[in-house]
Fold these 2 entries.
Entry 1:
Amino acid sequence: MACNQVFEDELHHYLNHELTYEEEINLKHHIMSCRACQKHYQELKRVDQKLSDIKDVEVPSDLKCNIMAQLPKDSRFKRGRKIVKEHPMISAAVAFFIMLFISTLMNYHSNQQMSLSKHEGVVTQGDRVIIPEGEIIEGDFIVRNAEVVLEGQIRGNLTLVNSQVIDHTIHHGDQFNKYNHHVEGKVVEIDQYVHWIYHKAENEIKSFMTFVTP
Amino acid sequence: MDFRLNQLIKQVKKGNHEAFGEIIDNYQHAIYQHCYRMLGNHHDAQEMTQETFVRAYTNIQTFKKKNKFSPWLYRIATNLSIDWMRKKKPIHILDQPVREDQQQTLLDQINSEEKTPEERFETKELNETIQEVLLTLPTKYRSVIVLRYVRDLSLQEIAEVLDLPVGTVKTHLHRGREALREKLVEVNRS
Ligand SMILES: [Zn+2]
């Protein structure tokens, strides 16, 4: 044991590197002349050395896996469910647009072939669609990837997707009145995918809105 | 605080497992060393390290931005380890009598084993003894000693981990060293 408590404390402060230069000199002087403190110092120094020599051990390789397996479920999914619960309308709308986008995309890609609204009396020749003279289509009419020969009448709208009207009866005059004789509704020409989606979305939204707000 | 760590914690608060995985990568070594020296064996160290990280994850909302992360983690590990030792029978205490009716302690047994002093010096002295003796320390001293020597934390950092005044940390460090000194002298006396 150190000869008194003050020197014992000093020894610890020394190990903590807390002594000033002068304090250290004084302590060392004392240690040289006091056997009790010398022994105490050596014993403490050995403890200090042994503790400092402690080597790191290897971490088990399955540690991280075990932790990850014990974590509560990823709550980002929980949050998703919460949003659905709190905002059913917004969630439904988001889900609807995702569905719409996917179905449109699929539609578009599977419809490089010519197609048209079903209607008796409409004649197809290759990729040409002929609405013969005297034929009257009561509703809307949609044509995709085709040339349209328009000789009959459409009471609703005519939508042309990647299609054009080749009208042999030739109406002179401006573009806007080109179809007036044959189409009572609007004529919409869509020849790009983005437009097609927009157009489709516009109609879907209308029907969606009438669905949610009857 | 480290920018990346801040980002990760933000992600973990949103419940992101992947971000927490990165935190585990960064701290598992440190926490494992701490637990191993506190508890003295791999089985318990693994158990407590895992529990530390699971607790950190489930309590991440209580972690405030102004706090430092690693002292927070060390504190969880220390508290869990101390609780664990309390629940578990203290099988490592060398000073306990081996049997109720005997006065001989485990320490006496180690000392009286049939070995030459040289052999004892080599096997015990090098690395085993210090860990065994460490385990005989009261947990409040052991925590400070392990954080100081094994984890190389400053006294100020240890004070943060244990939520104690720096003065108290110093006292524990000194008493811990003294206790170790006495035990080592005891072990070597034969
Ligand atoms: Zn002295």
Entry 2:
Amino acid sequence: MAKQSKKTKTKKPAPKSSKSSTSGGRGVLGLLAAVALAVAATFFFREPPEIPAPDTSAMEPQVGAKIAETRAGVERDIRSAAAWSKLGAVFQAHELFPEAAASYAQARALDAEDYRWPYLEAQCLKEMRELVSAREAVGQAIERNTRYAPLFVLQAELYEQEGVSEDALGAYERALAIDPSCAPAAYGVGRLRLAAGDVEASLKHLERAVALTPEAGAVHATLARVYRRLGDRETALRSAALARQLLPEVPLDDPVMASVGNEAVSVVGLQKRAVEAERRGGPTGAEALLRRMIALRPDEANLYYNLANNLSRQSRFEDAEVQYKEALARQPHHVSALINLGNVLSERGDLPEARQLFDRALSAEPGHAGALSSLGKLAVARGDMRTAIEYLEQAIEQDPDRADTHYILAQLLRGEGRGLEAVVVFKRALALSPERPDIRFDLAVTYAQQGDFRTAWSEIHLAEHFGGAPPPEFLAALRSQMPDPGIR
Amino acid sequence: MKLVILLLTAVADGPFTFTEITESSGIAFRHDPGEEGKYLLPEITGSGAAFVDYDGDGDLDIYLVQSGADGNKLFRQDADGAFTDVTSEAGVGDTGYGMGVAVGDIDNDGDIDLYVTNDGPDVLYRNLGNGRFENATRELGIGGDAWSASATFCDQDADGFLDLYVTQYVTYDVQKACTHSDGSADYCSPQVFPGTPDKLYRNEGGRRFTDISGSSGIRGARAPGLGVLCADLNDDGKLDFYVANDGEANQLWLNEGGGRFFDEALLLGVALDPAGQPEAGMGITAGDVDADVDLDLFMTHIVNQTNTLYINDGELGYEDRTTASGLAASSLAMTGFGTGFFDFNHDGELDLAIANGRVQRLKTHPRASSSGYWRVYEEPNQLLLNEGDIRFGDVTGASGDFGAHVEVSRALVFGDIDEDGDLDLLVSNTAAPARLFRNDVPKEGGWLFVRAFDPELVRDAHGACVLVVADGKSYLRLASPGYGYLSSNDPRAHFGLPAGVTIQRIDVTWPDGSRESFPGGAANRVVLVEKGAGRPGPSDR
């Protein structure tokens, strides 16, 4: 058998053209991959944003705990807009506005759709007095959502603060176009029109605002100025009296901001939540929050007082009595607690103990109108009208803007045969509360007793104008004296 | 509009320099609010000061109110301009928890008496005329135990005797502890406590005071009063009271005559901010900012609320011109207390100065000066130049020592301490020294001081309005010491006037509503106008 000879194999060179096309494609792909890797590296390995870390050592422990818990949520998912916005809300609810703004800014960057994050950021920037930045942020929110009226209300407020009245007016009007029931917008237009000297237009919008929120003292205050300018001093004075009696705020229906408030866990924050809960849903909604506050600060008398008032508003008077007594155990001279407990006992018929409480209130704060008024009602209950009149006159001297006090005094004066004085006091009550048909009916009765049937009919018609229905027996008796002259 | 050069980055001597002369003048006074860390509301509220010529030698002396046990201090200005502590010999070193001081001659005997307000019993010191005072509080039937703040003497019933209006703050509960929304402790807001009605006392011939708060109608309002100003604000010849309330609607008590007052603040537009919300009202001043011969009003407020400039629109009431004037932006971050309109550069326009200091813990100001507890409450005072057309520019950065100090300032007192024709400044600071600043601002024009004096009553006519007509232009100023916060000022009307003007005449509306005209003359002097010595008749007001 013959042996094979060894042969040297020589690799055949590849054709040049095929080799270059393959290597070029790989090169482009390689370049793309490198770029993608670089981007990914930047994306995933860049320095994560700093999570705000305020010093919580001076805060209430539950606030510090909530902040820590919410920060941890962001640490777990640094790219979650929801986590950042939750952190922002917790900061904002506790008025840590720089931290809140920074958190919302992160949420805004991560979520280009949701209008809430730039809106809430704008609210925080406003609190930080960074008005230009706030306006930019709310502008971004509006770009994302042109149908949420509170955005335009905030924009308008910022324009107002910067003195750009025309733009403020435009923003309020856009808010109204979205939500015709937006009272702050109606009020804003009204007061800007007044500032511009257009009193008639101002009146129109202010009356619209007051129809939407009759309990907003600020609107009545501005209306007082308008009526004065129009020469109607009587109506101006009535509006001014109402403004003094009512809380000034003009409420805005803003669920986005309301949701922030729900994150508050400090005592102050819970207090605000309780007020808002009661405003929206009645006293039952606030009770749990008030009890939480007491658990946090068991030695604070005022918290028991607030809970007692809440329970009274729920007509749970026995429970209210317990809480008033808790308040007084901690602060024996708590005047309002003394008076309110006295009123509860008085309603129950426990007059001597009620009297003691009112006397204690007057000792703690001489001349307190509420205590005097309550003593007056107590005197009525025991049939001592003269003493009642004295107390109520003193109460009015201390606090002349309470229609009810004038009303009760007027009734007492009439009962004592002092009809002319009663008429004067009824009129004072009506000057403070012209929309009260019950006061007008009583005034009509007083006029009729004095033989002035014509004026009695006039008051009846005014009462009807304000929605009252006169007692049929009184109407019949009045008709028997004088037919309805048809005065309107 | 005038061009103003501002030094924004570093505070140094500039074109509007006020030089501190406290030490060189011999004034050694450090306010002591009490123990730190308890956040008791009175600590953050006081205290006040006064320029007062108590010895009648023609120069201004200084009274400083203390809250600590060391007591108030009276510094007499000597002939060489230095000040000497004469508290002991004068007998005016009240040791109550001091708030403010009002000055006025209550018995028309030619020397000035002092009313000191306290958190606790107030004190009236009657000047015996020999460098000594006596405590006449009980004898005169005046003063109470409530927490009083600013007070002012003012002849509201035009009977020739100075009556007294005392603002009262809150019924304070020392047990009440307050926190921020984050739960950290701080001073309470006054809204946590019930407001206390103010007091109005009628002076019965200098022998006794009668409390007419109830009959006057003033007692019907329970609000935390801090500032008060007395002037005829509706030009009806009767003196009215404008009251700054802290967190509630301000009051403008218009004098109806017969000792009755009616609050028209809401109707006239000076009760609330433009959004109908009450603000934290502290200091008040009045002046004719827009040169239309009526008194405009300015009030200081807390951080996140602007100070407020109310321009008098005559029959229409007042218009809030804060934002348009440039005063909004400069005040939003500040908490203002003492204030006053004054022409510091004698260009004929009324400028403004404000004493600032916080009432709640905020981020420390970068130039805060102390290292301890009060550091987070410190902020700089402000000097604002009237640039014309009711526009103000913040020139604090060019105000020298005045703008350099960053403390918790409260009262700001205006007076010509060195008798060179311009108004100098005295600042009281919480837990820090009181400071005296001499006006060294280069002047554009001349000046005039007008002392409105009633020779029959042997005293200054508090609340007189003085109108100087010079080269066809009218300048209106109020001659009254009672404005600002917790303080009392030089009672004379000061005018800065353009260079070279000739004063045609000086018209005075006296506190009883009567009017007289006096001859004019040159500028750069002190003019004494005496009631009854002028030509009766209407003025341009």
